[in-house]
C-alpha cells in the first residue's frame, strides 16, 4: 500500500497499485474456523505475515527433536506445517486441526473463544519450551520482549526502589471510572500508562531510611523496546455494577508511532514533571549549595561560577543517565550469569549515592503494574509529539493518509531510532458474551493491506483502518494493534530509513521435510479436485436432465376431415384428440435434437410424414392451445428456450403442399363465454368456453368485432345482439371474492388489450345490453355467485360397506359426486334437509362431517354455512347412524409398546384396541379410568389394573407425542370426534401434573469403529427448565452414564427426524457439550427447544469419539461441537485431546471462564496416555459384551411371550375356541415369561 522511496535527501511515500476494495485475493490463503477459533486464526495470520517470526520458526529443525516429540504433539512442527501450507499449499484455505491437536486441545477448547492477548503469551511460552527441549535458543523473545522499570522514589532522602519488568505486550486501559481514566487515543493511553503517581496524604509511603511515612513518587519507565510491539486496547472491563462490559468508544491510533521520548527517561526528570513539591525541594537544595560556595570563593571564582551556572543542571542530568545505564548493564550481566539478586538495601552493598532496590521479574506476573495503571490520574498528553488520528470517521483519501505518513516519518527519525509503523490490526466484533475476530494486515511483500477473515482473504485500502477506531455504536472495532520498528540504514552518520529493505521469506527457507509434508497434502488436494470435478460434472449432468412432455394429434384426429389449425384446437373441438409422450432429455440439447427425437417417437415417418413437414410449437395443456413456433431457433438449447416438464411442446404436422400457420409472438389465446340460461355455476365445467387468438396490441373495440365475427361463423349470434350493444367483462379478484369488471369501463374502446391488462388465458364474459341501465345476465350470476356455496357430498348407499374406515375411499374426489348449490347464509339444518331428500334418509339417521383430516361431525345445526366455513366448494362426508350429542366425542385407543430393538422405531403400535365415548368435561384421570376398565374387560378377563399405570399420549407418525397430564381436562388437548390416542401400560404408577416435565427417549452412541453402535432406548423424565449440568445428574443417577465416567465428557444432540435418522449421520450432528455455556442454557431454549414429549436424544462420550478415525469434509461448514470427517488433509487427521484451562478470560466470543492452556507432551507421556486408554477400552468392551448377552437372552424370552400373547388374542376371536384352551395358553405364557412387557424382569440400570 505504501513504500518508502529515496528521492535525493528526502524520504517520500510511493503507493502500490490500488485494487478493488473488498476483492478476494488468491495470493494469500485463509484458515478454516473449527467452531470458535477465529481469534486463533487472526493471530496465526499475523504471525505468518511477520517475516521475522516466520524465519525464526523455519530455523527450528524437527530432526533434532524427533526422539523427544512425535509429529502429532510437536507444536513447532505443526506450526511449521501450517505456515508451509499458508505459503505453498494449493488449497485456498488451510486447517489448524494439526496445530490444536499438538496443544492437547479437545472439542471444548475449539468451541470456546479465548482472549487473543492471553493466547499469544501462552503460545510463545509453549514454543519456547519446545525450543528449550532440544537446547536451542528461541529468538522470539528478542523479537517481542521489552523491559521497563517499576520505580518508587522518596522525595526526602532520594531512596529509590526499581523493579525491572519484562513484557511481551502492553495492555492499555481505555476507560476506568474508578480512577478517572477515559482515554480517546492510543497516545493518551500510553501517556497515562507511564504517568508517575504521587503518594501523599493518606497514601504516603513508609521509608525505612527516613523511618517515617514520607511523600514519594512511583511509576513506570521504558528501558528497552522490542522490535515488534503488541499493544492491546483494553476494551473489556467492569462497569460500576461489577458487570463485564465492552467499550465501543472511539479510540484512535497512529500509522506511525514515535516512542523516542519514552526510551531511557530519567526518574528525577519524570518526578520533576509530576511533583511540584519535589521541584521546590530540589531548588532549595541547589540554593543552599550555591550560598555555601559564594561564602568561600573569591570574586574571580564568583565570576567563573556565574559563567558556568547555565550548564550545572545539564551536567547533572548527563551524570545521572550514565550512572543508571551502568547499573542496568551490571544487572543484565548478573542476570545472564544466573547470579543471586543483590540486596541493595544493605548499606554494605552500596557503593555510593542513594540506596536502590532492584527486582528481576516478568511484567505479566507483577501485581504492582496493575496498581500503577489503575491508580494513574487523568491528565493531558504532556505535549506528546506523536500526532493522533483525525477526530471523525469520515473516510479520508488514501493519498492524504500516505502524505501524513511521509511527514511523520521525516519528523520522527531525526529524534531517534525508536519509530514504529502499524502493520496489523486485530478486530473484535461483538460483546463480552459473544463475538468474532478478524485482522487487517499489511503485507511486507507488496505493501498492500488485506483483510483476513477466517477462510476468506480480501484486499482493503489503508483508509479502511480508520473505520476500526470505534464510534460508540458499532461493536466492530480494533482490539489489538501491532507495530514494527522502522528498518534504518547501517553505517550512516545520521538516522535514515532503509528504503530498499523488503522482508520476503522465500520458499528456499522452508525446511525440506515441511516441503515434503505440504507436497503430500497438495497431492491429496489434486486427487480431491479431480474427484470434486467429477462429482460436479455428474451433478450438472443430473441437473441437466429434464423430462419433455411432447404432444401430437392422435391417429383418430388424422382420419377426421375437421380443420385442425392452431386456432381450432380447443375444448370446443371434440374430434381433435391429443396424445402425450414423455422423453428424457438434457437441457443443453438443442431444439433440433428434441424435434428429431419427437419425430421418431411418434413414428411419423411410418405415417408418410417427412421431417420437414413437422415443426415444434409450445402447447397450453389446460386450454389445449397451440402457441408460438420456434422459427430460426433450431440450434438454441432447450434451457435457453425455457422448455422443460413445465413447458410442454407440440409436434405439429402438415401436408407437403401446405404452409404452417405462423403465430406472431403478439398473438395470445383468449377464452370467452356466452351466457346460457342453464348455467349453474362459474366453474369451468359448467360454462361454454370458446377460444380465440387475438393480437395483444389490438384495441378493445377490435376485440369486440372479432368476437362478433367468430359468433357469426359459429352461428351463435342471436337476434337483438350486435356490435353496438356488446359488453365485455373480465374477472376481478379482491378480498377473497370475485366480481365482474367491464374492460376499461366500457368508455375507451381505443385502448390496447395489453394496457387493459387482458393477457393470455384471460376469461372474457360476453353479454349484450338492451338498455344502457340494464343489468346483464353475467352481472346477476356473479352477484349470486358471491353468496353461493357449492357443496359436494357422498351417497352412503354407494361405495364399500365400511365407508368410514376406508381412508382411500374418503380421499377419492369421485366419492363426492353429488352437488348442491346453496346460499352461504343458509343453515346446516337446511343443508341436512336437502341432503336427506337426495339420499332418502331421515335427518336423524345420518351424521354430516366436514371432509378433511379429522372428519369432525358438524353438530350445531343452527350455524350458517359461512360460520361453518363451508363457502365456495366444500366437501362433506355422510355416515349413516345416530348423530352424537354436542357434549361427547368418540376417541380411538391404540396400545404403544416400547421397542427395544436396535432399529429406529421407538414404539410398536397395536391394532385399534377399542373406542371410548368421552364427555368434553371429562378429566384425564377419568379417561384413564375408562381406558383401564375397557382394557381389563377386553384383554385381562376383568382383572383390574391401576389407572396410574396408564399413560395417554398423542399417536404420532414418527414418535409418541404429548403426554396428557393428570389434573387437566381432555378438551384441553383438542378433543374431537375420532381423536386417536395411544396408551402405554407401565410397570409402575405415574402421576404427571407439572406441565414443565417432559418425557424423552435417550440412547448412547458408542463410536467403536465404522459408524459405531447405539445402546438400547430408554425413556427418562426431564424438566424443560433443566440446565445442561443438571442432565448430568439425572443420567448418572439412572445409570445411563456409568459410575466410572465423567459426565462432563459427554455431548448430546437431538434427532430432528427419527424416520430418516441413520447412525452414519451422527458424526455430522450438532453436538452440544452437557456443560455448554457453563451449564446455564435450559432445555426449552436453543439449541434443543425441548418443549414437548417424545423427542429422541443421543449422548456420546467425546473421549471415545476421539479414538475414531473419522474425518470430515472441510468444504462443509463447521458447527460448534461438531464431529469432523473427510479426506481433506493429512494435517486434519489428528485427534483432539483435552486439557485443563488456567487463564482467566474477559471478552470476545463464547467466553470460557477458565482460560486456556497449551500443554507440551513428550513421547513418554503420550505413550502412557494411550496405554491407559487402551486398557479402559478393553474393560468397556468386556462389560458391553456381557450386557449384550443378557439383552439378547431377554429379547428371546420377550419374543416367545409376545407370540403366546398373540395366540391368546387370536383364540378369543375364533368363536368355537374353548375357555379351557385359552387358560392353558395363558398358563404356558406365564411359565415362560411372567412379565409380558418384559421391562420389569430386566434391570435397565444394569445396561
TrEMBL record:
Region ranges (Disordered): 299-330, 1174-1194
GO cellular component, one term: cytosol
Biased composition (Basic and acidic residues): 308-324
GO BP term, example: protein deubiquitination
Domain USP: 29-486
Domain Ubiquitin-like: 810-885
One MF annotation (Gene Ontology) recorded for this entry: cysteine-type deubiquitinase activity
Listed InterPro entries: Papain-like_cys_pep_sf, Peptidase_C19, Peptidase_C19_UCH, Ubiquitin-like_dom, Ubiquitin-like_domsf, USP, USP_CS
Domain of life: Eukaryota
Coiled-coil annotated residue ranges, if any: none
Name this polypeptide is given: Ubiquitin carboxyl-terminal hydrolase
Source organism (scientific name): Euplotes crassus
Organism phylogeny: Eukaryota, Sar, Alveolata, Ciliophora, Intramacronucleata
